[in-house]
Amino acid sequence: MKEFEKVGYLNHDFKMFHILDRQRKIYEFHYHDFNKIMIFLKGNINYTIEGKSYLLKPYDIVLVNAGEIHRPAVLDDSEYERIIIYVSTKFLDSYSEKDSDLNNCFERAKNEHSNVLRVTSLDKSKLYQVCKELEYSFSDNAFAKELYQKILFLEFMIQLNRTVISNHINYLDASLGNSKLLHMIEYINENITRDITIDHLSEHFFLNRYYLMHYFKEETGYTIGNYITEKRLLLAKNLLRNGCTVTEACFQSGFKNYSTFSRAFKKAYSTIPKNAQYLD
C-alpha cells in the first residue's frame, strides 16, 4: 500500500466546492491540516473518519477536524454529489470569543463522538439557504465580492453553530465502526504526549507487534509511527500559535528530541517551527 499523505491545500480563510461524480471512484484515506465541512447531497456513501463509519443520507453534514484521517467509500454506481467547505483553523480561532466561538460545532461533535449531523429539513433551513448564497457568490463578480463572501461564510458558520446549539439535530452513530481500531486510535490520541512505542501498544492490546503494524496500516493508510508524528505535529503547531516557545511546543507535544521535531515540522509544513504563526 502506498504511503498515506496529506492532500488539499488551503491558501485562503476558506474555500468552497460543489462536486458531482457521475462515475464511481475509489478514494484513498487522506487528511488535511484544515477543517472540512461536507454537505452530502446524493449517492450511496459509507464515510469513514478515524475508524468510525457512517452510512450517509442526503443533507447530512459531515464535520472533519484537521488531522483526522477519512475517506468516502462509494457503494454503487449512483452519482455522488456534495458541497465541500475547507476552513482554516487559524481563521476559526480568530472567532473564538466566549459568546461567538465558531469552533463550537466541531468541539460539540467531538464531545458527542460523532462526525455527522443529521438536521431535520436542512434543505428548507436558513443554514442551507445561506450555503447556497455563499456558493453562488463564487461565480458572481459584483462589487466587493471577497468581502461579501466572507460575510456570507461567517453567517453560514453562525447558522451552523446556532443549529447545533438549538439541538435541532441528531448526531449520527457510527454504523460500521471497527471497535478494535477505534480503541487503538482513542488510546493513541489520549496518550499522544507520552512515550508510545509499538511494543507498548502490542502489550496493551494483546496483539503481536507485526500483526498490529500491518493491521493499523491496512485499516488507516498510516503506519503507526506516521500517525503519531502527524498528531504530534498538529498539536505542536497549535501550541506555537498559542504562544508556546519552540522548545515548549516540542516537548509538550510528545517529541523527545528537538532535532527530530524540527526536521519533521519542516518536512510537514515547509517552514521552521518558529514560523508557525504564519501557517493555517
From TrEMBL:
SUPFAM superfamilies from the UniProt entry: Homeodomain-like, Regulatory protein AraC
Gene3D superfamilies the UniProt entry points to: Homeodomain-like (1.10.10.60), Jelly Rolls (2.60.120.10)
Molecular function (Gene Ontology), one example: DNA-binding transcription factor activity
Keywords: DNA-binding, Transcription, Transcription regulation
Domain HTH araC/xylS-type: 182-279
One Pfam family cited in the UniProt record for this chain: AraC_binding
InterPro entries recorded: AraC-bd (IPR003313), Homeodomain-like_sf (IPR009057), HTH-like (IPR037923), HTH_AraC (IPR018060), RmlC-like_jellyroll (IPR014710)
Ribosomal protein keyword on record: no
Descriptive protein name: AraC family transcriptional regulator
Species lineage: Bacteria, Bacillati, Bacillota, Clostridia, Lachnospirales
